[in-house]
């Protein structure tokens, strides 16, 4: 499991090696570090900043975080997970993952998109390691400005790790790229074949992971369960969870 250290204000932070520092944007705060990586299925941005503890999510109270996320969700969003943990170095951590479904123009499909494979890149992630983004060619604010193609999904990880000096505020945006929806379609077919679903309209396909009665937005679906990450290592949600685990294990 390969990591490298980056300086984020007064904090020394370990991150997965595929992430490379991106060019600064004119309106970026001076203490904000933005990094990127990509696979044939995902475009990922990681924004790191040292923040005061009063601006961080509360540790030890995941229910309050769930309630806060539920209250902030838009109609094109859904909650994937909330968690708290103690890192391997003894620091308290809290995180949430929220998805946003794109409403823009449909993405163009290419016949050879699925033929590309990122598995030959050095393995800092469990499998199918992301390659570094072309730093000069990336407008790294695009993922935060609602430009997702219709039906494509963006996953946003918000992670707060309580260092002694400050709290590390990490925000990761992981967008579907290339041919989208493959994970959902494959898992749905598998679930129907195994009798886990009765068909296309089975309500068991999607539900909020913490409150089945909460139906606002686009609830988490079965394909987004962590148990399917290993089968789709280059998917943005798999990469996001792998990044989360690596940062918890090394900070």
Structure description:
- By secondary structure, the chain is of the alpha+beta class.
- The protein has one domain: Protein Transport Mog1p, Chain A.
- It contains three helices and ten strands, in the order E-E-E-E-E-H-E-E-E-E-E-H-H.
- Strands 3, 4, 5, 6, 7, 8, 9 and 10 form an eight-stranded antiparallel β-sheet that branches. Strands 1-2 form a two-stranded antiparallel ribbon.
- The chain is globular and about 55 Å long.
- The two termini are 13 Å apart.
Main attributes?
251 residues; alpha+beta; Protein Transport Mog1p, Chain A; 8-stranded antiparallel beta sheet; two-stranded antiparallel sheet; 3 helices; 10 strands; 15% helix; globular
Query: In what range is the share of β-strand residues?
Result: 25-35%
Secondary structure: helix percent = 10-25%
> What does the overall shape look like?
globular
Low-confidence stretches: 108-124, 132-145
Helix count equals: 3
Distance N terminus to C terminus?
13 Å
Biggest beta-sheet profile:
8 strands, antiparallel
CATH architecture: 3-Layer(aba) Sandwich
In total, the number of strands is 10
Radius of gyration: 18 Å
Write the CATH fold name: Protein Transport Mog1p, Chain A
């Amino acid at each position: 499991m390969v990591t490298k250290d980056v300086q984020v204000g007064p904090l020394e932070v370990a991150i997965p090696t595929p992430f490379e520092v991106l060019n600064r944007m004119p309106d970026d705060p001076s203490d904000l570090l933005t990094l990127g990586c990509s696979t044939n299925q995902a475009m990922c941005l990681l924004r790191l900043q040292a923040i005061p503890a009063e601006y961080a999510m509360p540790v030890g109270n995941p229910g309050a975080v769930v309630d806060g996320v539920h209250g902030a969700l838009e109609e094109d969003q859904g909650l994937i997970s909330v968690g708290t943990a103690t890192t391997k170095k003894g620091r308290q951590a809290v995180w949430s993952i929220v998805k946003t479904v794109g409403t823009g123009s449909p993405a163009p499909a290419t016949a050879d998109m699925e033929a590309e494979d990122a598995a030959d890149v050095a393995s800092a992630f469990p499998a199918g390691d992301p390659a570094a983004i072309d730093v000069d060619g990336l407008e790294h604010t695009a993922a935060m400005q609602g430009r997702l193609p219709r039906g494509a999904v963006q996953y946003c990880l918000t992670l707060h790790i309580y260092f002694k000096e400050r709290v590390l505020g990490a925000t990761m945006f992981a967008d579907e790229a290339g041919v989208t929806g493959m994970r959902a379609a494959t898992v749905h077919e598998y679930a129907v074949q195994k009798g886990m679903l009765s068909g296309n309209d089975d309500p068991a396909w999607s539900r909020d992971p913490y409150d089945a009665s909460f139906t606002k937005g686009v609830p988490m679906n079965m394909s987004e369960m962590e148990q399917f990450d290993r089968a789709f290592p280059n998917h943005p949600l798999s990469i996001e969870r792998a990044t989360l685990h690596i940062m918890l294990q090394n900070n």
